[in-house]
Amino acid sequence: MGKLSNVSAREAVNRFAQAGYFVDHQTGSHMILYNPKPGALPLSIPNHKELAPGLLRAQIKRAGMTIEEFIKLK
């Protein structure tokens, strides 16, 4: 399992964008990402300085990716 510490919200959004997600809108401090692929679940990323590893791990799983796949996206 890869290391997920020190990932900013902007970096996470950029990596999810490479996986096909796009920022649809922002509600409060959370960016809502969608993927047009059928069956893909929306993601909610808080726009904070750094994301907690547990929250990021949950969003990666929700996106149907592995941690290694997410880390490879730069």
Structure in words:
By secondary structure, this protein is an alpha+beta fold. The protein has one domain: Metal Transport, Frataxin, Chain A. Helix content is 35%, strand content 20%. It is built from three helices and three strands; from the N terminus they run αβββαα. The chain has a three-stranded antiparallel β-sheet. A hairpin with an 8-residue loop joins strand 2 and strand 3. The longest helix is centred in the first third of the chain and has 10 residues. The model has no long low-confidence stretch (mean pLDDT 90).
Show unreliable segments: none
The radius of gyration computed from the alpha-carbon positions, rounded to a whole number of angstroms, is 11 Å
CATH superfamily: Hypothetical protein
The CATH topology name reads Metal Transport, Frataxin, Chain A
Structural class determined from secondary elements? alpha+beta
Q: Give the termini separation.
A: 17 Å
H/E element sequence:
HEEEHH
The DSSP helix count reads 3
